[in-house]
Write a structure and sequence with these properties.
mainly alpha, 8 helices, 44% helix, elongated
Length: 184
């Protein structure tokens, strides 16, 4: 559950009301213990701010030294004061932005990569990222950027290698061209 949802409002909380008398020695030990085993940078910073307030530093001073707003420190002190658990200062999970090209899954990508670009009317013998991006955008209706496509190819285990061109047949006159040593 997000700390925003379980945030309780403490009335009368001012700079001087949030000092050492508001926090018990057990609170200070709990906060200091959390700082010894940091698991998240944001949690570390928030616990550090709350601990400094618990040790008697004014909120404005803590905010100035950590270069954050005083309202943020005030809110963190309030959130900690509700249940007195440092874990309440963690960021809530967020859904984030939906994936670009949601229709582009591994099976669809493998199906396109299995086709020869020449058979589809392109003047290329192998797929390149720009060509594949253009094909997916135009033919499959799947809007995808080159960066996203590269990431999806890497997630699917696809590797790109430059084609190595080799001669189909050995020249009959190679001995004459190179000398007697190359004839064998």
């Amino acid at each position: 559950m997000s700390h925003y949802k379980r945030r309780c409002v403490l009335t009368g909380m001012t700079d001087h009301a949030s000092g050492p008398t508001y926090f018990s020695s057990h609170d200070r030990r709990r906060l200091a213990h959390t700082l010894r085993r940091p698991s998240d940078v944001r949690l570390f910073r928030r616990v550090q701010a709350v601990l400094r307030v618990a040790e008697g530093d004014p909120i404005r001073s803590v905010a100035r030294s950590l270069r954050i707003s005083g309202r943020s420190v005030q809110r963190w002190v309030e959130v900690y004061g509700c249940r007195r658990q440092p874990a309440d200062l963690l960021d809530a999970r967020r859904s984030g932005r939906p994936r670009a090209a949601g229709k582009l899954d591994e099976a669809a990508l493998a199906q396109v990569l299995a086709q020869d670009p020449r058979a589809l009317g392109y003047r290329a013998t192998t797929w390149t990222t720009p060509l594949l991006t253009a094909h997916l955008n135009r033919e499959c209706g799947c809007p995808v950027s080159e960066r996203t496509l590269r990431r999806r190819l890497q997630e699917g285990g696809w590797r790109w290698k430059r084609p190595r061109y080799v001669f189909g047949e050995r020249d009959v006159a190679v001995g004459q061209k190179k000398g007697a040593f190359a004839a064998g």
